[in-house]
Every structure is written in structure tokens, then in C-alpha cells.
Specification:
Layout lengths: L3 H18 L31 E6 L7 E4 L5 E2 L7 E2 L5 H12 L8 E7 L4 E6 L5 E4 L6 H7 L7 E11 L5 E6 L1 H6 L14 E6 L1 H14 L6 H10 L2
Parallel strand pairs: 6-10
Antiparallel strand pairs: 1-2, 1-5, 3-4, 6-7, 8-9, 8-10
């Protein structure tokens, strides 16, 4: 009977931990669960970012036409104008901004803007994945594909709680929580939004992993002898 008590205790602990892990993510000010993850086409236009190159064509003054690169601050310069904001805006919005800025020196400026080239197409993948860091997007991919490119979820990661964070055109940061595991087993539950560059995909850690990390750092690694050596000696003495 004495031998059964530790086993019953371990079984009870496993049930409690599994119940804790099954809880749905709780909405908070830091990670609000928004419905923006379901694409509705409202923000489907390509938004410019630092590193993109624009060909600015000034029909009324061809000598002012040029190719510009959006700087790290999200702006670029044109003759006879202050720095023009381009990041998180569409090409049409930037064209209107350039036309308004140059109207102070030119009469009815006729301007066209073309997207000459795009900068780095990357997303950030962090948390409990094998190779966290910047991931180059080969095309339109979703969070699951990005995590696979980062080496997949580790043993301590929690595929049921993957956080996606995105900075919107107005500067607001929105986030959504995805259950990748449910989407893998049931495609009808795969409501993963397509990623956009500079998105952040974060795989959370299992609660049991945090406890194991605490035991390793503050108990096992603090002991003067190897923890496994104790069990080897104990096993040989049986």
C-alpha cells in the first residue's frame, strides 16, 4: 500500500497539470484576442516598409523624377519637400502625399509612383521552437509553415497556444491566439491568418516545462553531486 501512494500522487498531479494546460487563453490588455486574424480584405493592399524602393515619376517636371528608398525611419525625401512618410502606407497614399508636398513649388504636379522593389520579407518566430529568429518568407505562408521553417515546436512548447502579433497601419499592435494542434487534426479549425512581414509568431511554453526548468536551475543544478549519479548508485544497491 505504501508503494501505491506515490503512484497515486503522481497520477493526481498529472491530472491537475493536464487540466491546467487545457484552459483556453485568457484575454488581457497585453494579448487581446481579436477577430482581425480572419482576413476580410479590408487591409489586403500592400503596405510599404523600410527597404522598399519607389520609382517617382514627375510628369510635369521630368528632371525631378527619381528612384528612392524608404529609410529605416519609414520616410524618404524629394526635392522641394520635407521628408515624406511612406511606411505602413499604400503606394496610392504615398503618391497623394508626394503630390501634396510638391504642390508648394509646382503648379498642379502630375505624379505617378511605382513599386520598384521590395525589401526583406521576414517574420520573427520565437518562443519554444528549435531555431528562433528571423525567417525569410518564400511567399504567402501561415504561422504553421513559419514554425516548421523554424525547426518546429520543441518538447517544451505548447502548440495549442501560439501567439501572433502584428503592427497595423495606424501603429496599433494587435494579437491573436491560435491552436495549431487543433488545426492539424481538424482542418476545419485551421483559422490561421496569412502572415505579413515583420509579424511576430510566438510559441508559448507548457506549464510543466516551467516547473521542470525551475527544478533543474534551482534544485538539481545546485546540488554538489550529479543528480543522475544518485539514482545510478541507488539502483545498484537494490
Amino acid at each position: 500500500m505504501r508503494a501505491m501512494k506515490p503512484l497515486l500522487g503522481l497520477a493526481l498531479l498529472a491530472i491537475i497539470l493536464s487540466a491546467c494546460q487545457a484552459k483556453a487563453p485568457i484575454e488581457s490588455d497585453h494579448f487581446p484576442q481579436k477577430e482581425w486574424r480572419h482576413e476580410d480584405g479590408a487591409d489586403a493592399y500592400y503596405l510599404l516598409a523600410p527597404g522598399d524602393q519607389l520609382e517617382v515619376i514627375v510628369h510635369t517636371a521630368p528632371e525631378l523624377s527619381r528612384t528612392v528608398t524608404i529609410g529605416p525611419d519609414g520616410r524618404f525625401r524629394m526635392p522641394y519637400s520635407d521628408p515624406i512618410v511612406a511606411a505602413a502606407r499604400t503606394v496610392e497614399q504615398v503618391r497623394a502625399g508626394v503630390q501634396s508636398a510638391m504642390a508648394t513649388e509646382l503648379n498642379n504636379p502630375d505624379i505617378d509612383i511605382l513599386l520598384a522593389s521590395t525589401g526583406s520579407q521576414r517574420v520573427f518566430v520565437g518562443g519554444d521552437v528549435a531555431n528562433p529568429g528571423l525567417i525569410d518568407m518564400p511567399g504567402l505562408i501561415d504561422p504553421l509553415q513559419a514554425i516548421i521553417m523554424a525547426g518546429g515546436v520543441t518538447d517544451t512548447g505548447r502548440a495549442q497556444t501560439v501567439i501572433l502579433m502584428r503592427r497595423m497601419p495606424g501603429g496599433e499592435v494587435k494579437s491573436a491566439v491560435f491552436d495549431l494542434k487543433a488545426g492539424i487534426y481538424d482542418p476545419s479549425l485551421a483559422d490561421w491568418a496569412p502572415l505579413r512581414r515583420f509579424d511576430v509568431v510566438y510559441v508559448t511554453r507548457k506549464p510543466i516545462a516551467d516547473q521542470n526548468l525551475f527544478v533543474r536551475q534551482y534544485i538539481r543544478d545546485a546540488l554538489p553531486i550529479d543528480f543522475s549519479l544518485f539514482y545510478d548508485i541507488a539502483g545498484n544497491n537494490r
